[in-house]
Write a structure and sequence with these properties.
Blueprint lengths: L4 H13 L13 H6 L14 H29 L11 H4 L7 E6 L9 H8 L2 H4 L2 E6 L7 H6 L5 E4 L1 H9 L4 E8 L4 E6 L14 E4 L4 H12 L8 E4 L4 H6 L5 E6 L3 H7 L4 E5 L11 E6 L3 H24 L1 H10 L7 H10 L12 H13 L9 H4 L7
Parallel strand pairs: 1-2, 1-3, 6-7, 6-8
Antiparallel strand pairs: 3-10, 4-10, 5-8, 5-9
Length: 395
Amino acid sequence: MPFSPSAIRRSGKLSCLFATLLTTLSLSTFALSAETGASAEPQAPTASDSAAAAVTQAGQDGATLEPDASAKQTAETEQQTRPAAGDVQDPQAAATDAKPLTHLKVMLDWYTNPGHGPLVLAQELGLFKQHGLDVELIAPADPSVPPKLAAAERVDIAISYQPQLHLQVDQGLPLVRIGTLVATPLNVVVVRADSDIQSMADLKGKRVGYSVGGVEEVLLSTMLQNSGLTLDDITLTNVNFSLTPSLLTRKVDAVTGAFRNFELAQMAQEGVKGRAFYIEEEGVPTYDELIFVANSDSYSRKHEQYAAFLSAVGEATAWMINHPDKGWKLFRESDPALDTALNKKAWYATLPRFALRPAALDAGRYRDFENFLYERGMIKQRQSLDHLAIDVNAP
């Protein structure tokens, strides 16, 4: 069995998340990540990394990373000439004739997966071209670098995470959220459905597996506190990248840091039903899991492109929700490597999580999560909303 998808993906998130604060927060990935081997494993930053150094290093990293990723994406783009499905306008006919397309580099948070569905479909359906954009989707070789490359303007937009944004802005990175891709948390605590754990309170005296500490520990502590427990009531066990295997083999009774759209599907694929405890129902303020970030100084120059990009993403999201089966067909046909049973389950599990209005900003989410992190000592100071997030459609 491959490593737990969340654990592997989260390992890359660590190195940029808490460069000076702590080693933390994880990402989710897929069986595909196992195929990438050691080459995809991120390099952890040193404790002496500064925000400026991070940006500079990101530029250097980008010079190394982008050619391979770009070449791969270019090759894929050249192959993606299939006609649009059903009631969708022909991408070629949809291309803007009046003026040249504006090239936009968009770096994903990880290798292409169902969580990137709206982007892939916007490309496949010709929606980016309809909005005057020539979008280049780039998969990072190191999942820690996308926000840094956006901060350094080596890419125009990067996919990142709301908790990560708070921490990186606190560290001084010139980043701002311009849109939302997945509008709910994906993080969950998972147990076997055939266990005697029916609620978080039942975790007392149990073994809980985790991949990394830091914010994950803060989130779990808050969930336990919501049920009258503390971290002293459980036994934390580091299971490294084996969240799902550790649960399936009963090495632990629960795991934290799993992703609700993948781990549960992975368990089902192995014939074991899981039970999830959702962090937003257990005392943790809700947040946007996947967001689009850009250099905060570039906003005035690229505002129109950002708005056009988000319009295309929103149209693709609406289309794939209206046509989930056609959407899955287009998605898997965009790259044969995506056509797996786990990805298919994840596709349908992720659909209801996508932001229907990617540009819309929920100011309360950013205010509440900022306060949550500040009160727990995860950030040094509170930021004003416009330092964290922007509504590109605001007057």
